[in-house]
């Protein structure tokens, strides 16, 4: 056809058919390397970064995550944006810091105006699925086409839901009962007076063997339903984004017998930092948490502490087993070579370090998170030791999958490090916790140093190269004041905490 000639209807139809054929060919992966990559994001809750066989932990039984790590890039110095469930998860899915996404704590619904990874990938033609916990707080689904959560598990459990209510001992939205606080707000806890209570001193038990059959655990449910999704939708021409999100190793620390029997309390070793913190050189809130652990007061006793550690590792082993079920299905369906696989957690777990438990702190065990990424055709197995923030996970996954995202998000892609883990850039890592509260605190990791600004208490400064256990608070030393002031200025340039103007 000449350049100036008018296209005929036949020519238009021919070109349209060719375009449709090319599109279908790309989506089926035949004849082109441009077919969109699937994405499988496996998440856990409260996974201490170094509790991983691949990280050298001799106690951890994590063969499936270890195998994933052997074929992936493992990031050794990755951090969450906020060491508590809801704000951290909102950052992972939106690419925004807490002070911008507005989900301040575990009782604050995610503001609906922010796009999530599901909106971006859905807009790019992906089938988006979330199976498991995401702690949305209210009934929003935030763009996911396919969504199964705790309430669907309770429907599956039927009368056996009472076994889980007994394990929790009281209402606990962090563990999904209720999944949505408002459902019980008007009429109260429907399980009150119906639970069988144990001898725990606080709201969270030290640990015990679960009475729920293994196949009925939430982790088994998430694995089974993730497999169902992969079988039903993984072979479609439409690419998928699947998030499989487990609760364990988060409380309740009540694993199935098969995993509980792997670990004995008497074999567990207390951390080197147990009982060694100088309480005069840490903020008051840290001191109070060391002296009295409100959720589980029994952990003041070394024997009970060892018991908790054993049950934590058992929870972790059970989660790993179920994650392995999903990874095995991906491989058996022939989807592995065209699927970006990511494993991470929303925050860590102190697990007795410094005499502390759970999360809420900016110490490495709490704020550090495991992060493993396998991108077929892009990445090769390696370690990346560059400090980075989970706020960049969304744009990283999107860049690897060639999905456009907003330029207005906070996170910046570290896909370059997935391609070349040796590529190093000295970028600051920020985190925040307990916003809109006089006890708010903010963290900056810059090079070897980690600085914490407590809005109404003493600052903290640690050199992670010379003091990886964070036992020597350099912020109290006169010879480090210039470093403190420099990092404080950099942090305040990033975000000026309004809590500084609140009365203490």
List the helices and strands and how they pair.
Layout: H1 9-28, E1 38-45, H2 63-70, E2 73-79, H3 85-94, H4 98-101, H5 117-123, E3 127-132, E4 146-148, H6 150-157, H7 161-168, H8 182-185, H9 218-233, E5 240-249, H10 257-260, H11 284-291, H12 302-332, E6 339-345, H13 364-367, E7 368-374, E8 382-384, E9 388-389, H14 393-401, H15 415-419, E10 429-433, E11 441-446, E12 449-454, E13 460-463, H16 481-494
Parallel strand pairs: 1-5, 1-6, 2-8, 2-9, 3-4, 3-5
Antiparallel strand pairs: 2-7, 6-7, 10-11, 11-12, 12-13
Could you give a quick summary of the protein structure above?
The chain has 504 residues and is of the alpha/beta class.
What does this structure look like?
With 504 residues, this protein is an alpha/beta fold. The protein folds into two domains: 35-427, Alkaline Phosphatase, subunit A (3-Layer(aba) Sandwich), CATH 3.40.720; 436-504, Arylsulfatase, C-terminal domain (2-Layer Sandwich). The protein is 32% helix and 15% strand. The chain contains 16 helices and 13 strands. It has helices at 9-28, 63-70, 85-94, 98-101, 117-123, 150-157, 161-168, 182-185, 218-233, 257-260, 284-291, 302-332, 364-367, 393-401, 415-419, 481-494; strands at residues 38-45, 73-79, 127-132, 146-148, 240-249, 339-345, 368-374, 382-384, 388-389, 429-433, 441-446, 449-454, 460-463. Strands 1, 2, 3, 4, 5, 6, 7, 8 and 9 form a nine-stranded mixed β-sheet that branches. The protein has a four-stranded antiparallel β-sheet with strand order 10-11-12-13, with helices on one face. A hairpin with a 2-residue loop joins strand 11 (441-446) and strand 12 (449-454). Helix 9 (218-233) runs parallel beside helix 12. It starts with 8 loop residues before the first helix and ends in a 10-residue tail after the last helix.
